[in-house]
Amino acid sequence: MVFPALKPKPVLGAETIFISYGPLDFSLPVSSLEKFAKTGEVDRDLSFYARFLGENGLVNFREFLQRRLDISPVVVSQLTYTPIGEQLLQRLGTVIRTEGRLDGFYALRAALILAAADPEGMTMINIMRKFPTSGIRMDANQLLQLQRQFTILVNYQRAAVNAVTQATEQEARESSTKVPLPKNLQLRGNIRFSQRTLQLTRNTQSLGRNNSPHSFRVELYIPEGLSQPAPVVVISHGLGSDPKAFAYLGEHLASHGFVAVLPQHIGSDAVRRQALLLGIARSSIDRMEFVNRPLDVKYTLDELERLSRSELAGKMNLQQVAVIGHSFGGYTALALAGAKFNQARIAQECNNQQISLNASYFLQCLAVDLPPVTENLSDPRIKAAIALNPLTSIVFGPEGMGEIKIPTMILGGSADIIASVVEEQIQPFIWMNNPDKYLSVIIKSGHAAADQFDGTDQEPQPNSLGFLLSGRDPKLARDYIKGLSLVFMQAYLNGRSEYKGFLNAAYAQSVSREPLKLDLIRSLTPEQLEQAFGRKAPIPIVPEPISSDNPR
């Protein structure tokens, strides 16, 4: 005999979606959505809503419901407990609520983890079935925003990447390059180099405007035996990383005759990440890093100028400097290159409470609390820049990106789940006005592919967090980055004009190989993006300008 009180209770799962539109409430059984996803049948319950979507809308909606993510529950748990993951869930929790109208934050986290653990995998239907209340409440207007964001994330992003591929093919056909395209630029050069570590200290301001000493280390890779001072390339690591993660790139450039300078960014480095994991730090970064990172690089260059008059005399040409940065370091590189920090756009975009599935949105919006930035973050010594997976859309916007005057390359990965390739790299490339601009996209590469944090070339295991962040074959992605960086620096920093002939689509095609495809273009228009998408883009390709005098 089993006592009733001891019988196992069935796991709760949402059976009904409640949709609010103004003062009105409508309901829709989850079973109707499930039937539509499986068979395409629009039953009586769904037919009322289907007429608002239209034929194309229904096709997109069914694809949205069918899309499956094969990701382990451990990875989902890791992601949803990170500061960025929690911020995203908190924003979604204001849209997707429990039947009792409570914030859906905790219910969503549980549903995502349970759906990932289910043999059927993580689909929208499965997430609904795992939602731990019998009903889900959603606001119609916010639901439309969420669908729009999903369209950006999936359909429009796919179309934008296809537009870059089509432009690469077109530019390759039109290429006037006649010289043989070298394929060994990814290999280490023949120049010997030495390594040296500097410990620097400068006074910095905290968020409360208090001055305090700020110590950080700088790794140097210095070519030896050259007849003249070598040009300098600064490499800025990303959030939660450190200079060691880009030693592979510093060594590569040094072996080809460039001094590589890798500063540590204390407020957003690996030590900060460890503090987050231990629960010591509340935020993923110190907000002042938006200012301190570029100023650290400028201070480093000042110190190197001093050393070049003494113990490092004849080693460095500090009038020929370039910068390469990854992720938050990509922001750093663009700020040093002349992109203007755009506090008016930050204030507007980060205070309107719009839903965004672009995770970098939350990082960029940490800057909303900064006092007015009066420091000049650019540096006239910087003559060229490469930004890998950078953050751009809010911190710079079209106004800030349009201020860049020097040769600049932006590189993105089509499988980047942190900094949306379309919002953070492809569209911002269009915003730039400088004639020597380049856009490269590595197809199927992720956000962290450039970062060799573990110091090895071993590919992460499928269905792991590392795989989700890096994508397929990160070593190949880093090989592409080494080759592109060397060609770019030879052309624009070392004055070797013959290398400009390799900075084109034909070169990218010549080195591209499976499983990652390399695209490289010189120009792209809004019309090309919309043609690839097949209709008007779901977000403005070039947003309306905002100035501090006329914020919207």
From TrEMBL:
This is Alpha/beta hydrolase. The keyword Lipid metabolism applies. It comes from Floridaenema aerugineum BLCC-F46. The keyword S-adenosyl-L-methionine does not apply. SUPFAM superfamilies: alpha/beta-Hydrolases. InterPro entries: AB_hydrolase_fold, Chlorophyllase-like, DUF1400. The lineage of its organism: Bacteria, Bacillati, Cyanobacteriota, Cyanophyceae, Oscillatoriophycideae. Gene3D superfamilies: alpha/beta hydrolase. It comes from the Bacteria. Residues 14-139 form the DUF1400 domain. Keywords: Hydrolase, Lipid degradation, Lipid metabolism. GO terms for molecular function: hydrolase activity. Pfam families: Chlorophyllase, DUF1400.
